[in-house]
Design a protein that fits this description.
The structure holds 2 protein chains of 2 kinds. By secondary structure, chain A is an alpha+beta fold. Chain A is about 60% helix and about 15% strand. A 3-stranded antiparallel sheet of chain A has the order 1-2-3, with no helix packed on it. Chain B contains 10 helices and no strands. Chain B is elongated and about 55 Å long. The chains are: A alpha+beta, B mainly alpha.
Chain lengths: ~170, ~200
């Protein structure tokens, strides 16, 4: 941006009342000292009423009632679509406390269902021993266990004197 | 605080109350907001699209859109700058689409506004020569405004017609104050060039 452009922008700020008191005083001194700058300021001041008048004359005035009637028809007849209703439901997550409460309820419900299912299936019950295999080492046996939730597993038990068991 | 700012603060408080009532389902409150701002919203739309029917459609659409989005209005800015932002966005979109579709723009409503032959026209002027000059100037200004890029046009309209501050214009257009100053400068420069003959004659008179 060149110096002249910057100066014209400053004159615009002066004309628009966007300057502080000190800035205005400094600008008025500059305008008094430079007729060319004063001419630019005067032209900018003259443009505003001209533009307002031209647009006002071309646009004319509007009647209030027809505009309101058109707006009212839309806002009173309008019902939210299913998608909008769904989005409205999601709006709850905009509010942290509400979201935290919903999340807590969901987590507690999930835990309750999980615990109920595990208990029902006997996952917390003792596994059923299906087979015991004795090897050459009398201190080691392989126990085949069956668990409903975990399936079949082979557990090696070391340190037992199987001869005493027998 | 100057008189304009006190008046604006009072209006903003009244607007907030009307917004609150509208959100509670009071359509009469929204009607009051429409009545308050319809002329300004229409004026902004007209300043950008330069067509009465289109400007009316945009004004209506802006109020409908504002109503449907009212819950998302956070109140961080004033209601009117939020409403003007909706209006300007709709008007700029419309102007851009129209630029691609229409090569010759003709506003029929200008004919509708024509007074009976021999009758006085605009501004209370009765001297036919003065009337003619005034109309010619108005047409020159309107065509100069329409030659500006949409964002510059909207900036000039918000400043020169709606008398918004730079900060308010920046809020409405969603840009920085520096951008507002720049757009205003280039827009006004083009207007000054187009109107140089008229402005020189006025200053010489």
């Amino acid at each position: 941006m060149d110096k002249a452009t910057r100066l014209e922008i400053e004159i615009g700020r002066y004309v628009d009342g966007e300057m502080s008191g000190a800035e205005r005083t400094a600008m008025e001194r500059r305008l008094d000292a430079d007729p060319e700058l004063r001419r630019i300021a005067d032209e900018l001041k003259a443009i505003r009423p001209r533009v307002a008048e031209a647009v006002g004359a071309a646009a004319g005035s509007i009647e209030g009632e027809p505009l309101w009637r058109g707006v009212a028809e839309h806002i009173t007849a309008r019902r939210p679509s299913p998608l909008e209703a769904f989005r409205g439901g999601l709006r709850v997550f905009l509010y942290p406390r509400m979201a935290a409460a919903v999340a807590t309820v969901v987590i507690l419900l999930g835990l309750f269902i999980l615990v109920t299912q595990i208990t029902d299936r006997g996952a917390v019950a003792q596994p059923i021993v299906r087979e015991i295999e004795y090897g050459e080492n009398p201190n080691v046996v392989a126990v085949v266990e069956e668990n409903i939730s975990a399936g079949t597993a082979v557990v090696w038990i070391d340190g037992i004197d199987t001869r005493e068991v027998d | 605080m100057n008189a304009k700012k006190i008046e604006e603060a009072g209006a903003a408080g009244a607007d907030d109350e009307l917004v609150r009532r509208t959100l509670q389902g009071d359509h009469e409150a929204y009607r009051a907001l429409v009545t308050t701002y319809q002329s300004k919203v229409y004026g902004i739309a007209y300043g950008v699209v330069h067509n009465r029917d289109d400007a009316l459609d945009i004004a209506q659409e802006a109020f409908i859109k504002a109503f449907s989005k009212l819950r998302s209005f956070r109140g961080t800015s004033s209601f009117y700058t939020w409403l003007y932002r909706i209006t300007v966005n709709l008007a700029i979109d419309h102007a851009r689409k129209r630029k691609h579709l229409v090569t010759v723009d003709y506003d029929e409503s200008i004919l509708e506004k024509a007074p009976p032959e021999g009758g006085p026209r605009g501004g209370g002027e009765t001297n036919p020569l003065e009337v003619l000059k005034r109309e010619e100037l108005n047409e020159t200004i309107m065509s100069a405004i329409m030659e500006l890029p949409e964002e510059q046009r909207a900036t000039v309209v918000l400043r020169e017609i709606e008398d918004l501050s730079y900060a308010e214009i920046a809020t409405v257009l969603g840009c920085s104050i520096g951008t507002v100053m720049s757009r205003l400068h280039y827009g006004r420069k083009k207007l000054r060039q187009k109107l140089s003959g008229y402005l020189a004659a006025e200053q010489g008179a």
